[in-house]
Write a structure and sequence with these properties.
The chain is an alpha+beta fold and 135 residues long. It has 3 helices and 6 strands. Strands 2-1-6-5-4-3 form a 6-stranded mixed beta sheet. The radius of gyration is 15 Å and the shape is globular.
């Protein structure tokens, strides 16, 4: 594995860990934001629509959900991935699962995330994420 792959693995781990509120953990926007290049976007595709958010617009409702008591003992984790590095740009296909309790009931799911990354003067950063949950 190359240094680029090691750095990208670390960034993706931080991304997934950002949504973990098990055992009283609190989400940390600064740590989440550190994974991204300025101006990055996050999107979701469903059968009904494609939605795209800025980092802040994406984070705010999720922070409230993770800290407001509705979604407890939640975490997401990568189950499989494939990373392609082309000099200073990279693409990662990530399969994931998620688990927790939403409004006191079991909540679980799985899906796919696609990450675009770029090598910046500060190191590898995510420039775009697009995900789709499995139904």
């Amino acid at each position: 594995m190359t240094e680029a792959h090691d750095s990208i693995n670390k960034i993706i781990s931080i991304f997934y860990e950002s949504f973990d509120n098990r055992n009283g953990r609190l989400p940390n926007f600064s740590r989440f934001q550190s994974c991204f290049e300025k101006g990055s976007s996050i999107g979701n595709r469903s059968d009904e629509e494609v939605r795209i958010w800025s980092l802040h617009d994406f984070w705010e409702p999720r922070y409230e959900l993770l800290t407001g008591g509705r979604l407890r003992e939640f975490h997401e984790w990568e189950t499989a991935f494939e990373t392609h590095v082309f000099n200073g740009i990279a693409m990662r296909h990530s399969s994931y699962q998620k688990n927790g309790k939403l409004d006191g009931l079991p909540y679980a799911g799985a899906g796919t995330k696609c990450f675009h990354l770029a090598l910046t003067p500060e190191g590898w950063r995510i420039t775009n994420v697009l995900w789709e949950d499995q139904e």
